[in-house]
Amino acid sequence: MTKLTPQECLVLSDVLGDTPMTVISASRLKQGMCDAYVAGTLIDVDAALVFDAYCANEPCGFGTDADALWQLLKVTDGWGCINVDTSCATSLGDLIEVDRDTAIRYYGDVYHALLEPVHHYPNEAVRLLTLEDIARLATAPAEVQGNGYKTHEAMVTDGIAAGAVVDNNIVAIAHTYAETSLHADIGVSTLEQWREKGFATAAASLVAQEIQASGKVPAWSCGADNFASLRVAQKLGFTEVGRRTYVIPTSPE
Q1: From its phi and psi, is residue 237 left (phi > 0), alpha (psi between -120 and 50) or beta?
Q2: Is there a contact between 54 and 253 (Cβ–Cβ < 8 Å)?
Q3: Any long-range contacts for 54-57 (C-beta under 8 Å, 24+ apart)?
Q4: Which of 85, 14, 20 is nearest to 247 (CA)?
Q5: CA proximity to 13, closest of 2, 23, 3
Q6: Which of 86, 185, 166 is nearest to 126 (CA)?
Q7: Does the predicted TM-score (pTM) go above 0.85?
Q8: For residue 54, how many C-alpha atoms fall within 13 Å in the half-sphere facing its CB?
């Protein structure tokens, strides 16, 4: 097994397609911000692994051949779980359980698309972020600095970001986490003491509005029991379009 070259990553991105369920991995492949491996050939891929630079211990697996996925995964390091097509999750889990003598648990991952005009939720503390907010982002707690881009400057110029600014401090953020030709995935985070004030909903509404204005479809993904995130997606008008599953060894390799 060898790591794909940057040119091969571009090819794999096209092979994966451009959907709400592939937007993050496809974007990272095109950005050169991941490590990727395939079983088979790029013309006829049996399985593929994409290690997102921003979440390297949770690779995404593509293809439904559980054995091919495990053969790739077992010779890589640093992973704690893998996100795969739900149809092969149990089969993959069985292989890992036998091979590594460890119990397996499963966790659902829900994917959404915004297929109608976004519902607006204005909030006087929430606005789009600009280059004038770079210093605020740099000094904000890590969880509301945003990511998915190499710099804060790129996040607000190449991407789209909105935040809640209270007493000159960023306390909540929504931003494009990954973007392809057709879709843009939105990430959100709010400092714990500022939750339940509508900041995430308002910020995500602004970001989704800008995405739609650019002609792209906003995408949203979160864990099946992340009820706060699911509520925000529902309020904004997102529709569930699919699910994948995390396969998690109880003693991560």
Answers
A1: left
A2: no
A3: 54/147, 54/148, 57/81, 57/252
A4: 85
A5: 23
A6: 166
A7: yes
A8: 19
